[in-house]
């Protein structure tokens, strides 16, 4: 490689090769603005070697044969022009400069840039191999054209250090770029995972709200069915009772329509992230639920045996309310006219128990259609709350729904 003492006396050379000299990926067909800037800078650095060595050969004290001078300058010019294609073929370009470096001083700058480009764009083994070949090419060059001021081995070691520093710098730039890309990929992956977690959380919340509204909607529809059935089977009822039943039907239908709109809104593909959440029921809302069912004509007795040393957790109270609501809805649909017993008991440390019991209807359950998933969803709700749910026909001829929910002390 044609790096002579004059080149070694330029300690600022490595500092002039910024990390951007490697440009974008090797072989990129289209250069960005940054790539153009780097390529122009590399061209100017290599051209400065051609001008500097050419001027020294023309005006130097030691005469240089014209043919050798022309060949040297021509080789430097061609090597400098070839830098425009170093991105596409970095290894091939660096190897093509090996024979040029055996005699051409003017190609020294282009050779260093080529070695640096290989170190940036190729793995360490290839970069070290190319750097070693350029080191070996310096030995016959210095033997043919020795430096008149410094010993052979001194110049050789200096040139080797320059090439080694160039390779090490390129490998450092490559490692830094890989680290930045890795950190960027990790950041993008973490952002994508976070977005996925947010979407999953939104979906879970939408499903939970939809279940809540399903329970409420089923409760409203069962009230409508009960009152409409009463009007159908008692056409001779007093006008005030008919008006009262019609008012309840109208109110229940209005509420059912409102609940249905909310369910559809929740199940939209693009729900508003800041949409207000409907108020959730608690254990204190059980009396109102029972009164609403009584107004629909059900016979219900509520036994509140809860110890009120402290308020139960919100999720526990809401689950107890939903258990009672679903059990009353099933009693209205499948055992109309039967008396229902609702018992709520327990306290902090013992847990909260909810039991809804009604006699098994004569002739079996009514034929009112149902999805059959109410108790399944109820069992899942109770299980997610950390509790247990049991339901079925008892030996004494009743249908019983029993739930236990944890209530920490």
TrEMBL record:
The UniProt record lists the keyword Iron: no
GO cellular component term of the entry, any: membrane
Record EC number: 2.7.13.3
Coiled coil (UniProt feature): 173-204
Single GO term (MF): protein dimerization activity
UniProt keyword Plastid present: no
The Signal transduction histidine kinase subgroup 3 dimerisation and phosphoacceptor domain, residue ranges: 205-270
Pfam families associated with the record: HisKA_3
Membrane spanning residue stretches: 36-55, 67-85, 91-118, 125-144, 150-172
The protein, known as: histidine kinase
Organism (species): Spirilliplanes yamanashiensis
Species lineage: Bacteria, Bacillati, Actinomycetota, Actinomycetes, Micromonosporales
